[in-house]
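Q: Hi! First time doing this. I have a protein sequence and I read that you can turn it into a structure. Is that right? Here it is:
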Amino acid sequence: MPAKILVVEDDQSLQSMYQFKLEILKFEVAVASNGEIGLQKAQEFIPDLILLDLMMPVMSGDEMLQRLRKTDWGADIRVVILTNISRDEAPSVLRFLNVDRYIVKAHHTPTQITDIVKEVLGIR
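A: Yes, that's right. Below is the predicted 3D structure, encoded as structure tokens:
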């Protein structure tokens, strides 16, 4: 059974590109364009991993993650932050929310990001 990935990203072109790259690798992919929709999709889809942007309209990624971690179903979902905010500028609350990786989009190619997804999930 393929691993399930939720991509929460407000930039439509990036969202589509990550979805495409992950589906080529046979992942089951769901997408959301803000944290509010992301939280709803996470509850319905129960992904193995969430690629989560921080700066989004309606609900930010860090707020979504705080709410996710307070639920029974979302407490242990793997999360990779995928943002253009440097780690120094990131919300300090992230330190307490069990994030697997913190990736600055501008410093990684889509292939590197899919490799990180596989690594976090323990897939070769």
